[in-house]
Amino acid sequence: MGEAKKHDVILSLNAVSAGAPALRAARIRKKRFFVKIVGDYAWEIAVNKKKSSLLINDFQNTAQKGFINILAKTQRKVCLKADGVIVPSQYLAGIVKKWGVPSDKIHVIYNGVDFKESELTREEARRKIGIPGNIIISSGRLVPWKGFKMLVKIMPELLKISQFFRLVIIGDGPDKKQLESMVKNMGLERKVYIVGKKSREEMAVYFAAADMFVLNSGYEGFSHQILEAMAAGVPVIASAVGGNREVIEQGRNGFLIKYNDEFNLIEAIKGMHQSLELRDEFAAEGRETIVKYSVEKMIEQTFALLENRPN
Fold first, then answer.
1. From 35, 206, 247, 287, which residue has the greatest number of CB atoms within 10 Å?
2. What domains does the chain contain, in order, with CATH numbers?
3. Residue 22 to residue 24: CA distance in whole angstroms
């Protein structure tokens, strides 16, 4: 409350834990209030607590109960009462509209990427991480909708295409033990590596070692992982969901595939693996793509909105 008194505008980076008290402080102090929405918090909690198995789009059209309903109502109320809602993609703008927020209150400001590439060659990077072969990288929080189980499931089929394929999963989360058990039960300990969460510097080394980046996710508001892979010159395969379709143009700077579709995934990975020319083309186009997603542009657009000046 004391901090609110010192400033003209309050920006909350979520709608629930920070957003609700920040809105209250803003109204008491008569300050303008903005909130940034990067996902549906109620949906994420519902899935993590096994209260729902729905993907985010279906969740929007389903009545909720108990604590999940309270979370959904809270984030909706905060957005409705805010002076403006910032979202990082047109897709999330659509989600927030479904909450009843007027279009003129919703402002799309794409996230920026600030990623420093490793200076190591691919072979040097592979030696450093201790993983040889044709490396497929996938990263993110280890949660059900990220689709890591399908990537592990298709590894035997990928190994028929090339015995040198290696899958590296980077991240941590509630599904980690289940994924590790799956790898062990399938006898893939030397083919699939679940390496935990990594620093930005470590991520740069893993990207330098990779042949391709695959994101088989059922939901993405706006993926930092895709931008970082592109910044590192790694060709991308991603599910055609959410904000992914705003970054990837099919066949120009990457492949879009159907979420959790076994055949689609295998064919996309096979196609990229068998064509060095295609990988190089996607890598070059990816580097061109990220130019428009600069941190400087994101900051400028955010300040223009908060200061109520033309962008």
1. 35
2. 2-112+294-306 (3.40.50.2000), 122-292 (3.40.50.2000)
3. 5
pLDDT at 308: 84
- Rounded to whole angstroms, the Cα distance separating 243 from 284 reads 21
Strand 84-87 relative to strand 212-215: parallel, antiparallel, unpaired?
A: unpaired
Give the pLDDT confidence score for residue 175 in this predicted structure: 96
For residues 20 and 74, is the Cβ–Cβ distance under 8 A? yes
Ranges of the chain with pLDDT below 70: 1-6, 310-311
Could you report the per-residue pLDDT of 161-192, keeping only the tens digit for each? 999 999 999 999 999 999 999 999 999 999 99
Residue with tokens 């015995």: 163
Q: What is the rounded CA–CA span in Å between residue 25 and residue 33? A: 9
**Helix (H, G, I), strand (E, B), or coil: what is residue 215?**
strand
Alpha-helical (H) ranges within the chain are: 2-6, 19-28, 41-48, 56-59, 66-81, 90-98, 122-129, 148-153, 155-161, 176-185, 200-209, 224-231, 244-247, 262-273, 276-289, 295-306
